[in-house]
Amino acid sequence: MKSGIALSSLVLAPLFLVACSNQQIYDGIQQNRLHNCEKYPDAQYEECVADYQKDYRTYERERQALLKQGGAGAEE
C-alpha cells in the first residue's frame, strides 16, 4: 500500500510542478501586458487593463473547454 502511494506521488508531483510553472508564465505575461497599458491615456488605459483581468484559473478552464471542443470537432 505504501509503495502505491509513493508511486502515485512520483507520478503526480511533476504534474503539479508543470501547472505551477504554467501559471507563473501566464502571470508574468499578464503583468507585462498590464505594464504596457501604462503608455496609453486614461480612457485607453482602462480598456487595456480590462482586457487583461482574467485570472489563470479562468483562462485555463476556458482553454480546456476550447481544446475539448476542438477535439470533438476533429473527430467528426
List the helices and strands and how they pair.
Elements lengths: L1 H36 L4 H10 L4 H20 L1
Explain what the structure shows:
It is a single chain. The protein has 76 residues and is mainly alpha-helical. The protein has one domain (22-75). The protein has 3 helices and no strands.
| Number of H/I helices | 3
> What is the percent of helical residues?
over 70%
The largest pleated sheet is described as: none
Distance between the termini: 43 Å
Write out key terms for the chains shown.
single chain; 76 residues; mainly alpha; 3 helices; 0% strand; flat
Quick recap of the structure?
This protein has 76 residues and is mainly alpha-helical.
